[in-house]
Amino acid sequence: MSDIDMLDASSILARLDPTTRPAFASIEVVDAIDSTNSELLRRRTPDSGLVALFADTQHGGRGRQGRPWASPPGANLYFSVSRRFSGELARLGGLSLVVGIATAEALRAIGAARVAVKWPNDLVVDDDGVLHKLGGILIEGGLQDGVARAVIGIGLNVRMPAEAATAIDQPWTDLQAQIAGGAPGRDSVAAALLASLAKVLAQFDADGLAPFLHRFDALDALREAQVDALVGDRTVTGIAVGVADDGALRLQTDDGLRSLHAGEVRVRRRGRAQA
Ligand code: BTN
């Protein structure tokens, strides 16, 4: 790896398997933008194929719950993928889990063997019972021309610059720390993520969430952990016992089994449950 790790669309495309390339209507890299999610939301998503937009830096990067997503240049990955989906808009409910699975599996395959998914879709690494954030996913969208479309934004720490790291207010990690020998170039990481997303999103469009539930089990960072979930202004405490068929987080509480849906809760892991 040279010191300069430029992102380049033709290099990303060249790293994709020839059978995967036709899945993409376009792959684009820009130097700077407000937010790749905002840009793809402004654009019309084509009738078929995936659109992928990467930015070297974002000056208005957005995280979930209205939080900003710091996007220093030359180091990490910030990108969005948009796609149309068949059927009702409600079918997209399970999408956040599926995108977490696609990204975590791709990162494990390139050597980040300890990457897990913290429900609903944070990419994390567990270090001595503390979850360190490696990346985040922001899914937006709705109906376009009466058809469901999603804009899937992913921010991934590849090589977090030291000066940017000082501003992060939670435990974090990057691919550089997670892969023996260091992170590959960003083009390689980008291609691995796009290939996995193309495959998984096509399967989700055809078959829904069911085929992915067992794959989530293998990546579930909260499994058997005691968690506090913030539901509105109430905290629900329980043991995380996997996800329901609709992707809801199942919590075993003192009052019985509760199912928590994405968007309603924030989950904070407190430590391993006792056997
Ligand atoms: C989160 O964990 O809060 C989600 C973070 C999502 C960040 C990505 S970076 C690319 C895309 N553009 C944005 O403005 N946000 C997403």
TrEMBL record:
Residues 10-205 form the BPL/LPL catalytic domain. It is an enzyme of class 6 (ligase). GO terms for molecular function: biotin--[biotin carboxyl-carrier protein] ligase activity. The keyword ATP-binding applies. It catalyses: biotin + L-lysyl-[protein] + ATP = N(6)-biotinyl-L-lysyl-[protein] + AMP + diphosphate + H(+). InterPro entries: aa-tRNA-synth_II/BPL/LPL (IPR045864), Biotin_CoA_COase_ligase (IPR004408), BPL_C (IPR003142), BPL_LPL_catalytic (IPR004143), Transcriptional_repressor_C (IPR008988). Its EC number is 6.3.4.15. Keywords: ATP-binding, Biotin, Ligase, Nucleotide-binding. The keyword Nucleotide-binding applies. PANTHER family: BIOTIN PROTEIN LIGASE (PTHR12835), BIOTIN--PROTEIN LIGASE (PTHR12835:SF5). This is biotin--[biotin carboxyl-carrier protein] ligase. It comes from Lysobacter brunescens.
